[in-house]
Amino acid sequence: MSMHMLLCNFTDQAVRNMKEMPTRRAAAREKAKKLGVEIKEAYLALGAYDFMIRVDAPDDETLAKFVLSLAGIGALRTTTVRLFTDDQYEQIVNGLV
Fold first, then answer.
1. 7 Cβ partners below 8 Å, 6+ apart?
2. Terminal CA-to-CA distance of the chain, rounded, Å?
3. CA of residue 56 relative to chain centroid, distance
4. What is the value of pTM for the model shown?
5. What are the φ/ψ torsions at residue 29 (nearest 5 degrees)?
6. What is the pLDDT of residues 22-70, one digit of tens each?
7. Which of 51, 80, 88, 93 has the smallest number of CB atoms closer than 10 Å to its CB?
8. Please, are residues 56 and 39 in contact by the beta-carbon 8 Å criterion?
9. Which one, of 43, 50, 46, lies nearest residue 9 by Cα?
10. Which whole number is the average pLDDT over 72-94?
């Protein structure tokens, strides 16, 4: 599994229909489950991003399907950041030549 942080911003459409957010969140969780993506944590945020979602995905292609399906709803824009655990970080650094 690969770990990612989705940095998300609401579109104007999402802001106009903010009361629909619980329904959209449930639909996103269902879509993730169907694709094999696990939503680990989600945070409302202040600053450059409106919210952040930490997910685990079996591979990059599956994550791309999930992110594109979210974008297709028209309620958010995402920036995806690949995350590495401490162990993975050590393996990467130890593999430097």
1. 48, 49, 52, 78, 79, 80, 81
2. 26
3. 9
4. 0.88
5. -65, -40
6. 898 999 999 999 999 999 999 999 999 999 999 999 999 999 999 999 8
7. 93
8. no
9. 50
10. 93
